[in-house]
Amino acid sequence: MSSYQLDTRLSDVDKAMRLLRESMRGIPIRFAGFKKEHDRLARSVAGAAVLLECARPAFTNKQGKGKTKTP
User: Fold this and answer.
1) Is the separation of the CB atoms in 8 and 61 below 8 Å?
2) What's the domain of life for this entry (predicted)?
3) What ranges in 1-56 are assigned the alpha helix state H?
4) Which phi and psi (to 5°) does residue 60 adopt?
């Protein structure tokens, strides 16, 4: 996965979470425990997004282009 693909995926996750937030406006807050499940999902997705962002250097396409020295 390239850094560009990572940006695209994180952007897609952000869009999906915004849509989820907007859809929560039409549901009664305590309807069948849905709010609690929503909060757990949002917290988990945020944690995954932060981990991916922190792992960004592992997704770069840059490889050592210089000559390596051998002993």
Assistant:
1) no
2) Bacteria
3) 3-24, 34-54
4) -70, 150
The reply to whether the predicted model has a pTM over 0.70 is: no
Task: Please say whether the beta carbons of 33 and 40 come within 8 A.
Answer: no
Give me the helix-helix angle, 34-54 and 3-24, nearest 10°. 160
**Which one-letter amino acid corresponds to residue 53?**
E
Full pLDDT tens readout for the chain, 71 residues: 677 888 899 999 999 989 988 887 877 766 677 778 888 999 999 999 999 888 888 877 665 554 555 55
Contact 52, 46 (CB under 8 A): no
CA distance 20 to 46: 13
Q: What is the DSSP letter of 38?
A: H
